[in-house]
Amino acid sequence: MNLIKLAFLLCIYCVSVLPVVAGQLLLTNGTLLDPSDQSISKQHLLLDETGIIARLDSVPANFAGQQLDISGKFVIPGLIDMHTHAFGNRGPNAQSEIMGPGTTAQVVLHAGVTGFVDLFGNEEQLFEHRRLQQQGLIAGADIYTSLSCLTAPGGHCSQFGKTRTIASEDEAKQHIAELAAKQADVIKLVSTIGGSLPSLSPVFLKASVDEAKKQGIKTIVHIHTLADIDSAIAAGADAITHLPDDAAITAELAQRLAANKVVVIPTLACDTDEYEFMFSDVLQSALAKQLAAPRIIQGYQKAASDMTPEQKQQAKQRTEKYYLSMKHLVAADVLLLSGTDAGNYGTLQGFTVHREMEKFVASGLTTWQALASATSAARQFLGKPAGLQAGAEASLVILDSSPIEDIRNSQKIFAVVHKAKLIN
Ligand SMILES: [Zn+2]
Question: Distances from the Cα of 299 to the Cαs of 271, 278, 283, 295, in angstroms?
Fold first, then answer.
């Protein structure tokens, strides 16, 4: 190949990987559903890559940007998955689908997930992916991340790979200072008191939360038992994730979570959808089939035939326990955020955010609250502007039907907008 031809090919390559500077996008005649103030309005929405510019009552004369008529459609803010592991999908019988954060971030956009919080993976890979994305060099849903998982030596997370461990208050301070220097979006801590693996003690958990507060970073505590929730409340954690496995959250404990303004990311679908994936038509949904490899979906169908009556009974009892926790959390008005724990069995990247909202409604939340849990409330937790007002992110989902009428309509995706760019 001669040098001119090579230079020409390299030049084409350069152009194709350079970020496209998004112009203005005007969405006309849609119905705007804003979960931040539960408002419904028919206005035109003007966006560019920096965010929502304005809501307009009339189309500006001589508008030169891209215009899309969305008459009869509904607009919601882009969804955020508050708890994921963006390596891919884990299915039954070792039928995993390894994608890595780059591909996962592109796939979930098609589910309307325009951002996610990765709560532990390969620290260097997550750091590098986020750095390239922030520089506009790679596309995909916005990545927020704890980078690492702070746990006891030999504690939960360490079985999945390299992580940071804490055996003294000094170590807690050092790790959190290092993660702060790498601009971790949140700090993830693990408490598993009474579990089979070593747990961070309440003293080390509190030292870690104190240090994160000094650094101005919010904390999310992975919990396993009721004792872990007490430890997280005593430490002053901002959020807990998962529901306890030893017993349901009581009405009294739910009230204490609310009084201490502890947010809960229950990952309810992760704990209950394994059963639904096997014994219902959930995975026959068009969105699920679009997002996951056929072998993952077939794997769940095969796993159903392998399940014994005892296992089915145990799954049913576990599900009842999780829904009892949810009943008390909803009654106490605890702020709930949608997180999937995708990457685990019983979840699909992107799809499970919709399942989590559906299960929140089944637990007693209104459709507005369920929608907020994956949109405006999630952004508020991350310190981002929320809703569909000027200044909020230009990341949206355009739906064929209203999710306020039926939350399952969040799956009826007409188009996704990420940073003012139409995705599909
Ligand atoms: Zn997790």
Answer: 18, 9, 11, 6
In the reported structure, the alpha carbon of residue 93 is separated from the centroid of ligand 1 by a whole-number distance in angstroms of 20
Q: Where are the alpha helices (DSSP H) in 182-292?
A: 202-215, 226-235, 251-259, 268-279, 286-291
pLDDT at 335 over 90: yes
* Distance from Cα 189 to the centre of ligand 1, integer Å: 11
Domains of the chain: 3-75+389-422 (2.30.40.10), 79-374 (3.20.20.140)
CA of 85 to the centre of ligand 1 (A): 6
Centre of ligand 1 from the C-alpha of residue 300, in Å? 21
Q: How confident is the model at residue 17 (pLDDT cuts 50, 70, 90)?
A: very low
List 342's β-bridge partners, or say none. 84, 344
CA of 267 to the centre of ligand 1 (A): 9
Task: Report whether 224 contacts 191 (CB < 8 A).
Answer: yes
Predicted pLDDT of residue 266: 98
Helix or strand holding residue 209 (H, E): helix 202-215
Quote the ligand 1 centre to 83 CA distance (angstroms). 6
CA pair distance 333, 353, nearest whole angstrom = 21
